[in-house]
Amino acid sequence: PLVESGGGLVQPGGSLRLSCVASGLAFVSYTILWYRQAPGKERELVAQISSSGSTTRYADSVKGRFTISRDNAKNTAFLQMNSLKPDDTAVYYCKAAESNWEYWGQGTQVTVSS
Fold it and tell me: Interior CA angle at 15 toward 76 and 61, to 5°?
């Protein structure tokens, strides 16, 4: 019930905005997390946002460049990615989590290359 979009090919220094649209769940009750997984590497937590949107956290590698947000009225979360680097190349996944349940999206590819 999570669908990511917005990935693509971008040059270093460019920007992308990922979206994660939820259906079939009480979106407002869930913490939303964005992960990424590069080839040959473990999945990495990039950013997370509380159910109300009042609290956000970021991996050190993306602080100051990425911004996570959500629109509970539209059951959608976002990951704004600026100043992209080749090391940001990965498949990006969103996850919705609450105490007893979690759901994953299918992922969207982000490639940063000149």
Answer: 85
| Contact predicate 59/67, CB 8 Å | no
Give the pairing of strands 56-58 and 66-71: unpaired
Distance CA 71, CA 78 (A): 8
Q: For residues 58 and 98, what is the distance between their CA atoms, to the nearest angstrom?
A: 19
In tens digits, the chain (114 residues) has pLDDT values of 899 999 999 999 999 999 999 998 899 999 999 999 999 999 999 999 999 999 999 999 999 999 999 999 999 999 999 999 999 999 999 999 998 899 999 999 999 999
Label residue 94 exposed, middle or buried (CB < 10 Å: 0-12, 13-18, 19+).
buried
Q: Are 87 and 110 in contact (CB under 8 A)?
A: no
Instruction: Round to whole Å and give the CA distance between 114 and 98.
Output: 39
